[in-house]
Amino acid sequence: MTSPSQTAVTKSDTPGLGPKGLKKEKKSKGGELVGRSPGQLMWMRFKRDRTGMICAIVVLAFFVIAALAPVIGSLYGKDPYTFYGSEDPNLLDEFAYPAGPNGGVSPEHWFGIEPQLGRDVFMRLIYGIRMSLGISVVVTILTVLTGIIIGVTAGYLGGKTDYFISRVIDFLLAFPSQLTFVAFTPVVVSLFVSPGDETPTYVRVCTLIIVQWALGWMGLARLLRGQVLSLREREFVEAAKITGASPWRIIRKELLPNVVTPVLVQGTYMLPLFVTAEAGLSFLGVGIVEPTPDWGQMFQAAARFYENDPTFLLFPAAAMVIFVLCFNLLGDSVRDAFDPKSGR
Question: Please, what is the Cα angle at 21 between 19 and 25, to 5 degrees?
Fold first, then answer.
């Protein structure tokens, strides 16, 4: 039996718990207090962040729309390749611009039609988002995995291995990323396709993934190297070594759980950067090209028509701004949820 005095001491010595605080704690079926895991605490903090929750919903909506693009096209009754302006001469005027107001926006074409070619802007945008997000997600996953492997290896092994990897990272970081993307993308394409042959879309997609991945992992690797260098000297790592744990077990059980936060935060910042980078390459003509829909390709076309048809630029630009802004704010919210001391 626990005496009343012991109960009083227990309550007073527990920080943040009074009579009301005890009721708020998670309890098991037996009525005993059950501690919350770090993941549960993070989720509780994240749910209280209204901005983060709204941004998460918006970002999730973008991914759902991209994944369900064929289904949306089937329900909408349109596709991104048909020249609707040729099928219906009333859609385009004598200058091949949308005859209707606001770029031809109508119940049949929700975002209007494309000047000259007469393709449906709504379907071009949805399939363009699908292409850009698909490429960027793959690049982000490959970049994060590479950064984890190289950064943790350099930080844990140290010595000559760390020196060699650090010099390679410094060398690659010296390349200006955007200019290097533009310069190396045609070179990588030429490795798969002869200069006189038409380049298939899948080759261009693979090229964009390879180029961005090869030049995108260094920042995360350097960050994790520094984290692991400090963690490997901590008491729990030394204790694991004394007990005879293998290096792989120490990395998997002791180090990786302690670098989850920077990995997740950096991942949420990387993806929108890769989206804009991929769109920029397509805008410059070294990424995805006609007739395959792409976000950057829509900006390229809009640059030719925006003076006479600004609506055509409005929808892809608004979608890009909303997506990048929400993903960046989501990254801030994830960081604050994992580390409340770094609040904005």
Answer: 120
